[in-house]
Design goal:
17 helices, Rossmann fold, Nucleotidyltransferase, domain 5, 454 residues, 16 strands, 7-stranded mixed beta sheet
Length: 454
């Protein structure tokens, strides 16, 4: 393969990327949409590495084989257009039943990582070069498996939730070349530096300006599609991860206190909120949130516990959760004070029934109530935004899951509250909702937010 085969112009950064073949075992490409990451990484750099590899077997992985065909193989400036010697067998052939590309006497298998049984059947042995498209959406078990089965790995992604395990296990372990270090947004560089680097892993951040095929007019048109301040704008246009503009609850340094500081307040009441999830397929959490209301009208999140069934060796059920809640309440009672009421997500009738059964059969001092959810989600957010601004909502620094959610919870591309990254936040809301009139300057807030009194 030679540079003369290419029918489009590469920017200087992409030329350096394609030419950096020595002492590179992993390439990580992150950045804005339409920056050319997939086209150059899969169609040029990967094929160059395969051409130089002694291994006969290689892999291209995308969400599905159909997605790989559409975006990587058959697209304009896709592999088949850029590499005339490459031939694609979407239904396999007599020698290989899996979809694959034949190139210079080598086989490149095309896998979908959306279904575990598909990629498990395809994996086996050692591979030369592996390309994973949109690696942040891939099954983390697939990524972990493939990491041990290649000589060279290239992954692309658009910025996403920085708390996904893929970031600290792979993406943040790569380091940029000094020449392009200043191109990496400061907040992303800070994330990279928190993790021990992986030897010979290189990080690249690309933007619209690195795509030599885009005119200024085309760039401006793409930017205009996403409303500023939304998650879409943050991730796709700015190339930033979850910690950026578009956050729903912006926590300041002044909102976070330590336990010693929290104990200086005079508390007039405590309560517990519980948001539940029993899914084994997602990272949705069971969250226990303990809040205190002070005589100075502040709401302080004092304690939390979170559990996840996807990562649990032995999955928990509603009958297992009630003892967890009681144990949590007892711990908080000794450490902070007694919370008579425990508010459980009213949509979870199963857990609420288990709580009533526990109280009937075992007995306990606590009163279990369905969460008071008449106040709409958006109104709860308005209230909390106001309290954060006036320092009437404080968070003890040990409540790290809650703080991380605040650093991630964002508006969607249409300007609505995203459905996710809010389980701890929801649990906290269940705890303070019944006592909202005792928090902050309620008399002013209720005149500004027309449904605040719901």
């Amino acid at each position: 393969m030679s540079d003369e085969e290419l029918e489009f112009v590469l920017s200087p950064k992409y030329i350096d990327f394609c030419n950096s073949t020595e002492n590179v075992d992993v390439d990580v490409l992150e950045g804005t949409t339409a920056s050319g990451k997939t086209t150059i990484a899969a169609g040029v750099k990967l094929m160059r590495m395969i051409s130089a590899s002694q291994n006969k077997q290689h892999i291209i992985a995308s969400r599905t084989t159909g997605t790989a065909e559409k975006n990587i193989i058959n697209s304009e400036n896709g592999i088949l257009e850029l590499q005339p010697n490459a031939k694609y067998f979407g239904n396999g052939d007599k020698d290989n039943k899996f979809p694959h590309i034949k190139f210079e006497g080598k086989t490149i298998y095309v896998l979908g990582y959306d279904t575990k049984d598909k990629w498990e059947n395809a994996l086996g042995g050692q591979y030369g070069c592996v390309y994973i498209d949109e690696v942040n959406t891939a099954d983390i078990d697939f990524v972990r498996e493939i990491l041990t089965r290649n000589d060279y790995l290239c992954v692309t992604l658009n910025p996403d939730d920085p708390k996904l395990p893929i970031y600290n296990e792979l993406i943040n372990r790569a380091r940029p070349y000094k020449k392009y270090e200043k191109d990496v947004p400061q907040e992303i560089m800070e994330e990279l530096l928190k993790v021990t680097p992986l030897k010979n892993a290189r990080y690249w951040f690309f933007t619209f300006n690195d795509n030599a095929g885009l005119t200024k007019e085309a760039i401006e048109k793409k930017k205009s599609v996403a409303p500023p301040g939304t998650k879409l704008y943050k991730n796709k246009i700015q190339g930033l991860r979850g910690k950026a503009t578009g956050l729903i609850l912006k926590v300041k340094k002044e909102n976070i206190i330590n336990e010693v500081e929290a104990k200086q307040y005079e508390f007039i009441g405590f309560s517990i909120g519980v948001d539940t999830s029993y899914s084994r397929k997602t990272h949705d959490k069971l969250t226990l949130e303990f809040c205190g209301i002070t005589s100075s009208r502040k709401c302080i999140l004092l304690e939390e516990e979170t559990y996840n069934n996807k990562d649990a060796t032995v999955p928990f059920a509603p009958s297992d959760v009630i003892p967890k809640i009681i144990k949590f309440a007892e711990k908080c009672k000794i450490k902070w004070g007694f919370a008579l009421y425990i508010f459980i997500d009213s949509a979870d009738s199963g857990t609420i029934e288990e709580a009533k059964k526990y109280k009937r059969e075992v007995g306990c001092i606590y009163i279990f109530e369905p969460a008071w959810k008449k106040t709409k989600n958006v109104t709860r957010v308005q209230l909390q935004q106001s309290w954060l601004k006036t320092n009437d909502f404080l968070i003890v620094d040990t409540c790290t899951d809650y703080i991380e959610e605040c650093d991630t919870y964002s508006y969607t591309e249409t300007g609505e509250l995203e459905d996710g990254n809010d389980h701890s936040i929801q649990g906290g809301q269940y705890a303070w909702l019944p006592f909202k009139k005792k928090i902050g300057n309620w008399e002013i807030i209720k005149t500004l937010i027309h449904d605040a009194d719901d």
